[in-house]
Amino acid sequence: MQAEIIAIGDEILIGQTIDTNSSFIAAQLNAEGILVWQKKVVADTEEAIRRALDEVHPDTRYVFMTGGLGPTKDDITKKTLLEYFGGEMVFDEAIYEHIKELFKSFQREPKEVHRQQAYIPSSSTAILNERGTAAGMRFERNNCFYFSTPGVPYETEHLVGDKIIPWMMETQMEGKLYHKTLITQGRGESELAEILKDWEEGLSESLKLAYLPSPGLVRLRLSGAAQTKSESKALVEEGIAIMRSKLGDLVFGEDANSLEEIVGKSLAQRNLSLATAESCTGGYISHLLTSIAGSSKYFLGGVVAYSNALKINLLKVNPKSIEEHGAVSEKVAIEMAEGVRQCTGSDFGLATTGVAGPEGGSPEKPVGTVWIAVAGPQGSKAKCYHFGNHRQRNIRRSTLMALDRLRKEVQKIDC
Amino acid sequence: MQAEIIAIGDEILIGQTIDTNSSFIAAQLNAEGILVWQKKVVADTEEAIRRALDEVHPDTRYVFMTGGLGPTKDDITKKTLLEYFGGEMVFDEAIYEHIKELFKSFQREPKEVHRQQAYIPSSSTAILNERGTAAGMRFERNNCFYFSTPGVPYETEHLVGDKIIPWMMETQMEGKLYHKTLITQGRGESELAEILKDWEEGLSESLKLAYLPSPGLVRLRLSGAAQTKSESKALVEEGIAIMRSKLGDLVFGEDANSLEEIVGKSLAQRNLSLATAESCTGGYISHLLTSIAGSSKYFLGGVVAYSNALKINLLKVNPKSIEEHGAVSEKVAIEMAEGVRQCTGSDFGLATTGVAGPEGGSPEKPVGTVWIAVAGPQGSKAKCYHFGNHRQRNIRRSTLMALDRLRKEVQKIDC
User: Fold this and answer.
1) CATH classification for the domain delimited by A2-171, as one of 3.10.310.10, 3.30.70.270, 3.40.980.10, 3.20.20.140
2) No. of H helices and E strands in chain B?
3) Cβ distance of B283 and A290 shorter than 8 Å
4) In the 8-state DSSP scheme, what is residue A163?
5) What angle do CA A261, A265, A268 make, to 5 degrees?
6) Does residue B70 register a pLDDT over 80?
7) Do B314 and A313 touch (CB under 8 A)?
8) From the CA atom positions of chain B, what is the Rg in Å?
9) Do B282 and A290 touch (CB under 8 A)?
10) Is B253's pLDDT higher than 80?
């Protein structure tokens, strides 16, 4: 019950496009206990695609191919699959109807190149792509299924997540692996390892703990590989409970949870609202918050106060505070958080002010110095952090730290 | 002169982490004309790493391995490389000094696990990692170089970009490929293909055009493969000039340019300032703008007016306009852009208001309806768009369209 992924596209091999499709497919398969034992990236030539098909391992039961489907000349997967699996191109009326509908929703007309996309090899089963014009395809040979989806992630996510995996679950059997991930904020990989050390050393061979750091977050993935999926699951769930008790409120969520989602839920459950006053994070906090559907229920908005004038005019920060303490200071952070809370009438105000870099640092306040303030029903608090000297990383780490500070304050209030 | 990439990590195989390192390395090599002919992802076990090393093609000259270096127990690349290439672990004083310095900058003390990172196989040359504790390593065997870097992208980008590639360029020879990419906004893949059709059909075999669509943008990559790098370059540059003349102002940049960078440069060159008033884009415009170092020179900040109250109180939108036309309307978009321009004193005001979804749509204003307004020295303009029904995609497409609308208005003004 193993799977292989073949990503097609020069743009991946030359590093211009990041292969998010493979990750998405692997995650989906993994969640169902199906092991991806290899990923490959090949060029978008007939020869390379054919060679990759020839090299599929005899024991592989599922091959996922992404990329190389679409209206322009550089798309040749469909042609190669037709030659490989045989048959002829047939016009699929249902797919063309869908293409016409799709264009109607964009208030445009399909052209001949789009009509061509309704031709599908007779050796395949077409999979309707509700998010685009290029249909997915399923082929079968020697007890192995081959799925082909377009390179556009938004379309492949739909085809794999909504169509192919449910079809597999319905018609095929289940795997044995089980994973669960805890997501932590505020401590580095090695500090977490110290906390878990004794427990980790006593783990059985069926359990494996992995540390997955990214800027501002460390995910801890516990994987179980027992005789059955339910046995693996039981082992993992038991381990996760122990890890949670050891890590306390360093853990903010599980698996695909994001901090912005957890913060949003915590606010919504308590019927509380939030507004932001961002300087060094430049709108990234509000971007993450508003990426969650339904966030308008608790997020009122905020001010990106990049210049001092905006801090003073819109957030009513006292010019004297900036003069005496500097814009990157406890006093200004607190005034920003309280200012945005007041001018929007929100329950919570969240503020950041810092030196994102690469310029603007001083010996006293080096690049990476960030003040984060939370103003709420229980009063106002600010804290200073040092996040190093990389701009993008500073913005991300400040944002995650700010959201986590807010999470802890909100969760102190009874639901 | 070919390269292979081996990414190590269960987290990539199960799709939890996206393999950005491979993309980064491939892009860097490609820019120097070195072809990456294969990428592989393998599990983080000694067996899988060893097998991948055994399977390196005899003609491969450079092998880039990322992942599996770091202070915690799941990191085993260094141990496997030691066994594979022989020698013994030796303590590297310079690396330990660097580790101590690094901890000092975080105002913390290194622990024993961090000191362990200063041990390096005697068969390798250590590569100092200025962004972290895990050093890079270079091994050599049978005229092939093997580089090992940590899985953390921020560290691998530094080691490969600042250390390994410059070393290769200095000590090795150059490749033959040449690529250039034009980046366009505002038209789909097939419409661009129509414009370029006749020219593209007459292309010689040494040139290849690829369409690389992503939400809101289409990149057009022209690749040349002639006898020498300078020949390839001449062919590509000539082709790019023709494409530019055919596509006109649909093209906003080249290669790694981003729209936010081009907009920022256009403003800075003219000594003009900008403020934003974002509703449906929720701060994403200001996040992209402030991700550019030095953006505080032209970006004053803005208001994320998610609620109507903020539109009225901070941006001085007329409540009657919202009542009569709705928050998603030409009138409100213009009042937001003019309001933020007025309250911040900026030269340009850029506003978005729309239905990002999945809720909030109506038959008259379905999910995906977005008004974008630009207010500037030449007056105010708004336009309505329909971006379909996917929330994240709507936010991204609205943001890119808004930045591109602004770009065109700014570029009308003489430098």
Assistant:
1) 3.40.980.10
2) 16, 17
3) yes
4) I
5) 135
6) no
7) no
8) 26
9) yes
10) yes
DSSP output for A140-152: EETTEEEEEE-S-
Residue B219 corresponds to which tokens in the numbers above? 């990149």
**Chain-centre distance for alpha carbon B215:** 14
The answer to whether A51 contacts chain B (CB < 8 Å) is no
Task: Give the span between the Cα atoms of A248 and A228, in whole angstroms.
Answer: 30
Q: What are the Cα distances from residue B283, in Å, to A227, A304, B65, B277?
A: 48, 8, 37, 9
pLDDT digits (tens, 9 = 90+) for B370-405: 999 999 999 999 999 998 878 988 999 999 999 999
The pTM is what?
0.77
Predicted complex ipTM exceeds 0.85: no
Amino acid A174: pLDDT:
57
Residue A388's nearest CA partner among A216, A254, A260, A246 is A216
Q: Which helix (DSSP H) or strand (DSSP E) does residue A125 occupy?
A: strand A125-127
Cβ atoms of A85 and A139 closer than 8 Å: yes
How far away is chain A from the Cα of B306, in angstroms, using its nearest Cα?
5
| Answer CATH for B259-411 from 3.40.50.300, 3.10.20.310, 3.90.950.20, 3.20.20.70 | 3.90.950.20
Exposure string over A153-187, b if 16+ CB within 10 A, otherwise e: bebbbbbbeebbbeebeeeeeebbbbbbbbbbbbe
d(Cα B35, Cα A100) in Å, to the nearest integer? 41
Range in A75-79, A115-119, B365-369 the model is least confident about: A75-79
**Are the beta carbons of B23 and A17 separated by less than 8 Å?**
yes
- Higher-pLDDT residue of A198 and B45 is A198
B284 touches chain A (CB under 8 A): yes
User: Cβ(A374)–Cβ(A342) under 8 Å?
Assistant: no
* Chain A neighbors of B304, CB-CB under 8 A: 276, 283, 286, 290, 301-304
Instruction: Retrieve residue A191's tokens.
Output: 């500090």
Enumerate the domain spans of chain B: 2-171, 177-254, 259-411
| Pick among B187, B286, B312 to test the A interface (most A CBs inside 10 A) | B286
Q: Are A148 and A135 in contact (CB under 8 A)?
A: no
CATH 3.30.70.2860 correct for A177-254:
yes
Cα distances (Å, whole numbers) of residue A59 to B15, B39, B77, B176, B215: 21, 21, 28, 39, 37
Look at residue B261 in the predicted model and tell me its pLDDT. Answer: 94
Share of chain B above pLDDT 70, in %: 97
Tell me the DSSP string of B258-306.
-HHHHHHHHHHHTT--EEEEESTTTTHHHHHHHTSTTGGGTEEEEEEE-
CA distance A57 to chain B (A): 15
Tell me the mean pLDDT in the region A92-108: 87
State the DSSP code for A294.
Answer: T
Query: Which is it for the CA torsion A404, A410, A411, A415, positive or negative?
Result: negative
